[in-house]
Amino acid sequence: MASKGRRDFLLQLGGLTSGNASRRPVARGGNPRATNAMLLRQIAAVLQRQRPPESTATNGDEELYPNKIASATKGLLHSQLGEVDLSAYQTLLTAVYTQQFSDAEAIVIGFGRKLVDIESGFAYDLEGGDSHTFTALPPPTFASAQTAAELIELYWQAAARDVPFANWSTDPTIAAAAAEINTLAAYQGPRDTSGQVTAANVFRGTAPGCTVGPYISQYLLQTINFGSTPREQMYRTGMPGVNYLTGYPEWLLLQSGLPPYLTEQFDPTFRYIHTGRNLAQFVHYDYVYQAYLQAAIILAGDYPETLLTSSTYLLSHTNPYKTSNVQTPWVSFGPPLIQDWLGRVAILALKTVWHDKWAVHRRARPEMFGGRVYNTLSGAASYPINPLLLNSQALQTTVPTTGGLLPQAYVEGCPLHPSYPAGHAVVAGACATLLKALFEETDTVSNAVAPSADGLSLIPYTDTQLTVGGEINKLAFNIPMARNWSGIHYRSDTDMSHIIGEQVTICFLQDQVNCFTEPFAGFSFTMFDGTPVSIVPGGGAYTGLNGLTPGF
Amino acid sequence: MAVSGRRDFLLQVGGLAGGAAVSNPNLRAPLPAESTRAGNALILREVAAEVEGARPPASTTTNGDEELYPNKIASFSKGLQHSELGEVNPISYQSLLTALSTQKHSDAENILIGNGRKLVNPEGAFTYDMEGGDSHTFTAPPAPAFASAQSAADMVELYWMALARDVPFAQWATSSVIQNAAAELNALAGYQGPRDASGLVSPASVFRGTATGCLTGPYLSQYFMQTIYVGSTPREQMYRTGVAGVDYLTSYAEWLPLQSGSLPVRTEQFDPTFRYIRNGRDLAQFVHYDYITQAFLQAAVFIFNAYPETVLQYNLYQLNHTNPYKNSRIQMPFGTFCSPHLEDWLGRAAGLALKAAWYNKWAVHRRLRPEMFGGRVYNTLTSAANYPIPASLLRSQAVQAVVQANGNALLPQAYVEGCPLHPSYPAGHAAIAGACATVMKAIFEETDVIAPTVNLSADGSSLVNYTDVALTLGGEINKLAFNVSLGRSWAGVNYRSDVIAGHMIGEEAAICFLQDQVNTLTETFSGFAFTRFDGTPVSITPGSGPYTGLNTLTPGS
């Protein structure tokens, strides 16, 4: 199709003309470039407008339990049982319902810690799908077998926090965890080809590559060249054996928003990520796209000296500069664009789940669930906790030290926003999807390593070949599962968030794919479930200016 | 108000309705009939696109050097084919011009490059984006002409920076090299750097920036010295650096093949010990391979999180006074108005600024790099050629000192490969710095005093408390912007005038970006308020002024 004809077609599709070429919009900037720039944005806006609104169906627990035992209430006032003050809860609901900042400021909170940014779920943006068009399906209910399976996994993770990954194949706690989880029909984690949960796949992710090779992704292990300076990935970690919120008085005060009064204890030695506790601490204060920026830096240049020849071999096969003899990618298709985009998809993803967290699902955190277990076991209350959990070996292992509370890796326990979907997981889904769109998934990772049992060295890993795509997927599970290692998220929080994050990035790329003037086949990558995706400029539902003569 | 009516109102406030709509009724897109969140989201984007679409195209006026010199001695040509004099092959240069004129990838791929190194992304000049001003609406004024007093001053400063690369900041007050540099720059009318209150360039002001705060306190910004908690892990700001006294492209035989795109034959030498940034060489190496927003992301992480333990109390005191959460007792900012927002915005503003810089570099100005200018000085002094280089440079003490040190007048480079393969003006690092610093000033409170403050010990091996004068957050952000940008001058790859133009474009790109973004927020919010590099206050208000949107409307109505 001639460019002019195609443009008219696009405008018509975008609802920007009635098909009459003489009614073509013109930017007031007055030149063709300005008109292109404006139309590109307006067509994208109109096409993203066609996304239907999300479903806001919930699991019904909030209505089912008048005492709100399954709802996120941390930071509000609670009774001695840890049940929320209902009038305080109503102030939260009012603010969420009216979306008024003044109502949010009128929420009746507890002992001082503040709720995390309810309003960000209502913010808009200038690209991608609107944050209210991504559906988070209802989470498992409080009383369900799936929630029981999730808690069993979390109690086991707490018990196994200090077992070095290097020792998993022979460790009795890991073996017991895998054996019990294996019996749970509602468990949503990976199983091997015989359908078994084993030490080799327990606590792992379900995407391609997640059960291949070491537990930790290469992108959390390999040395990163931050600018000119190589940095080994040795991190501060928590003190082994030290958990928090393990006594009821501590637990109860923190539910009502008291800042923690214990001091978090750290291992004075920085270590490679060698245990669940170490992984949990990595995601305690990480900046929003830290893990993925680090991965992108590893992927974009093995070491700075290679920049002289600009190693483009790891770029996606669709990158128009992959085989150029004349140009290196930079502003377009190069590292600056990758770093820019990581932040963009991360924030779009965060806004989306913040809406789902506060305005739709309001699921209680595992920490609160542990309190329900505690009070049920002590006879102080009788909550409809699934017998699978109450009778589990995981819980029996934990009760002697906590009475049923879920031991936390962070001194403050979970943050003050609802559990479902997970913020770290949605950022993981969005950023990992972006990395797969920009780098070549099928490439093999060279110089693979695994952490030693003490976390003080890296050991070459040669058992199986690891791929870029597999290790990106593994990273996308390592990060949200790290929040499970800390005791603050369920596996289903991760699974739903990955789907949302993936969709957010796909919409973002549908806008961006039309911003380039290079001939470009589009973005091509594989979703977490193995489905191939292709986002083509000027084709499919989304379309724009690519392929048109610049300055038309 | 119905959506269509509200949209008219917004366009009117934005100056886009009324006359414009009457004269061009097709300006507006059809609207969804219903009044919904989705309708709001659409209108916000459509209006922002129209408002940004009203920006006039950039002025493409150049300094005229490309037309003035048929042998293109003042034009960027590194990576193309060159004669023994380092003058570009006219056919090779024409192939570059053709690609830039047609904007076709196929023509770019047909550029006649030299010995193998590739040009850095000329087509990045033509990329579009979804927000902010279009990259072709940002004007870099004409660069100083090759034969001008200002270019001469730019080069004299760079020769002095090369000579002073290893002088620790802590010893500047007594260093003879620094004193001589300050004295000579002081005498140059074309020098655009800062002068003290008496109009003098002194060791206290030489090689510094011109924005508020740049002359206060240590040369290096606090954000380049203080320990940063990256996630949970504290990281001292000790970096890999080059080896003292080891410069590159210091012989003509090394210089010439690199102009034609040969890979460097020498191996870059690094100090095996990581160090705090003690001197110009250390700073130059920081900006050698830094990722796009590195210095500013590090600063943002530091400011948000002086140390992780405080996250529990959440230090909001450094947030801008306009931040709606600054005084909230109920909510902490996060996805809006806090760290994820800023960490995103740094990359976005930087990306937009870089696109604008790339457009100006390749499609408009094509200024030669200082490295090539050094070759022109070399060939003029050896009489191999006779180029119109001002005497203030040719006979400068700076050039004489370099000739004395190296036996020739090439500009000594800190990087083994010399400058990158894209034009000098405006500088990419400076465009990023301008954008990131501006976004940071919009988010943080510029007037806050930093406590505690530090400086490097005399030998540069440790941090010591610094108490001489109070340092403000805004001043140290401005200083950081100049540290990063002038870090490239310390390396010998950018002129001060590249930095000034880069900052200007970056600041403008960030302001346009914020003008779009200010309307995406639903909190009650008076807008962004901050100070430009030149001290001018800026206020970006939602739903008013030339830019407008949904902020003041009832959400979801």
Uncertain spans of chain A: 1-7, 17-23, 539-552
Number of helices of chain A: 17
Percent of residues in beta strands of chain B = under 5%
Overall average pLDDT of chain B: 90
How many strand units of chain B?
A: 8
Q: Level of helix content of chain B?
A: 25-40%
Rg of chain A is 25 Å
User: How would you characterize the largest beta sheet of chain A?
Assistant: 2 strands, antiparallel
Distance between the termini of chain A: 14 Å
Care to count the β-strands of chain A? 8
Task: Please name the defining characteristics of this protein.
heterodimer, A: 552 residues, mainly alpha, two-stranded antiparallel sheet, 8 strands, globular, disordered N terminus, B: 557 residues, two-stranded antiparallel ribbon, 18 helices, disordered C terminus
What do you see in this structure?
The complex is a heterodimer of chains A (552) and B (557). Chain A is mainly alpha-helical and 552 residues long. Chain A contains 17 helices and 8 strands. Chain A has a two-stranded antiparallel ribbon with strand order 2-3. Chain A has a two-stranded antiparallel ribbon with strand order 5-6. In chain A, helix 6 packs antiparallel against helix 7, helix 10 packs antiparallel against helix 11 and helix 15 packs antiparallel against helix 16. The radius of gyration of chain A is 25 Å and the shape is globular. Chain A starts with a helix and ends in a 17-residue tail after the last strand. Chain B contains 18 helices and 8 strands. Chain B has a two-stranded antiparallel ribbon with strand order 2-3. In chain B, strand 7 and strand 8 form a beta hairpin. In chain B, helix 7 crosses helix 15. The N terminus and C terminus of chain B are likely disordered. At the A-B interface, helix 2, helix 5, strand 1, strand 3 and helix 10 of A face helix 3, helix 6, strand 1, strand 3 and helix 11 of B.
